[in-house]
Design goal:
Blueprint: E1 16-18, E2 38-43, E3 46-51, E4 57-59
Protein name: DUF8096 domain-containing protein
InterPro entries: DUF8096
Organism: Peribacillus saganii
């Protein structure tokens, strides 16, 4: 069995990033792993987008 190695851009996935301070490098893609699939949630009128691949969170 071959191990799958994933390359990330060094973002800390435990921090909730703000879109105004860290806009998308590529529109609609994760800055950390370049994935285009996200889980979305809303809490206290804050929309949070979480990458399904690496878990990076960004408030929009």
């Amino acid at each position: 069995m071959a191990e799958e190695t994933k390359e990330y851009n060094g973002y800390d996935t435990t921090i909730l990033y703000d879109y105004n301070e860290y806009p998308d490098i590529k529109s609609g893609r994760c800055d950390n792993c370049d994935n285009a699939q996200f889980k979305s949630s809303v809490k206290n009128f804050i929309y949070v987008r979480e990458c399904r691949n690496c878990g990076m969170k960004k408030s929009i």
